[in-house]
Amino acid sequence: xxxxxxxxxxxxxxxxxxxxxxxxxxxxxxxxxxxxxxxxxxxxxxxxxxxxxxxxxxxxxxxxxxxxxxxxxxxxxxxxxxxxxxxxxxxxxxxxxxxxxxxxxxxxxxxxxxxxxxxxxxxxxxxxxxxxxxxxxxxxxxxxxxxxxxxxxxxxxxxxxxxxxxxxxxxxxxxxxxxxxxxxxxxxxxxxxxxxxxxxxxxxxxxxxxxxxxxxxxxxxxxxxxxxxxxxxxxxxxxxxxxxxxxxxxxxxxxxxxxxxxxxxxxxxxxxxxxxxxxxxxxxxxxxxxxxxxxxxxxxxxxxxxxxxx
Length: 310
Fold this sequence. Notes:
There is one protein chain. By secondary structure, the chain is of the alpha/beta class. About 45% of the residues lie in helices and about 15% in strands. It has helices at about 10-20, 25-40, 75-80, 95, 100-110, 130-140, 150-155, 160-175, 205-210, 225-235, 250-260, 275-285, 290-310, and strands spanning about 55-60, 85-90, 120, 125, 145-150, 175-180, 215-220, 240, 265. The protein has a six-stranded parallel beta sheet, sandwiched between helices. The chain is globular and about 50 Å long.
């Protein structure tokens, strides 16, 4: 990048090769700095990246353990639009920790209503709470939500609990997508007194067999699940996955060699992760343009259209 030109000529693949991957710590810091510089100096569409993005993994409000750059919704919306995001499926970070899910989801709806052309509210359901069925009804009937998000590890229940099966049955009957967040943070960065392991997904295969018409999307799954495991679940039912926490040069290509490409959706995990990190994964990929665009937005749009018309 020159001082007089607003262009970006170094993608992440070239960056890693040119630096020789100089150690995990140094490389991680350099890549984070590169993401920040990328977001400062260039707009996504102008740099030849994916267009018409549907981001299926977005959060609003604050993470309690640290401040992040875009935890103000105005800044987050500006970032998303700058990179060509046309729809963002947004849940509330308050839903990870608060017990009043009705209040959490209502505040989310009100915030998303400020940018109705971009933000799609995704309510949080905690099936371990006494009135979770009423929270489900409020989200689906009163707020018109078609996507709900679960945090089993933070909320202290397992996927083999009877309440989870009941929730998935309700979602299948109402044509609602259930997003299961496998993890929120790398265990190495979690506060010492607040260690939360990834969700145990072992019961998922049994649930898919018992409720074959349920639609599930796994978020932040790639540190825990191999592509082979994902393919097995996708063969058992309507399972989708986002891209977040998929690491390594050529990671997307390796993933779609194993799983059906139509089950892979773009997810950035902003504001906890840099949007540019997910965007660069797409830009650096050697996928055919039509495959890249399917992952960037087409697959999520088709999924949602099926739920709306089903």
